[in-house]
Amino acid sequence: MSDIYESAANSLGLFSSPCLTKVELRLTCKGISDRDALSKPDPCIVLNMQSHGQWMEVDRTEVIRSCVNPTYSKVFTLDFYFEEVQRLRFELYDINSGHNGLKEADFLGWVECTLGQDVFFLPIRRFRRGSPSP
């Protein structure tokens, strides 16, 4: 590789910036356990990402009042870095009616996953009528 090419590539950031793409996550829950006998849960999901061994809150969904099967309108948009394992933790809370803080919320559960492993991209082909199948 020539020095001129390397210099141009470095000045454009072709080698220093990691390869990334945007990923959108949409969340739904089914059959949330109702711990309060008087009312249904008011669920909210908090998205945490692990960084240097610490869990950091990235964002959270809206609170959906009195619902055991919420579908959230909040869309999480994350940077996905290829060849880098990104650990995510989704925490589910029942937010008390008068409060939106997590200190007074009931913790209902969590799930962890990685954004950088067991991921498949399937190409989608469109076929016209009368065209041969692949």
UniProtKB/TrEMBL annotation:
Q: Output the GO biological process annotations, alphabetical, semicolon-separated.
A: cellular response to calcium ion
| Record-annotated C2 domain positions | 1-134
Q: Which SUPFAM superfamilies match?
A: C2 domain (Calcium/lipid-binding domain, CaLB)
- Tell me a Gene Ontology molecular-function term this record carries: calcium-dependent phospholipid binding
Q: Name one Pfam family in it.
A: C2
Q: Which InterPro entries match?
A: C2_dom (IPR000008), C2_domain_sf (IPR035892), Copine (IPR045052)
Q: Which GO terms describe its cellular component?
A: plasma membrane
Descriptive protein name:
Copine 4
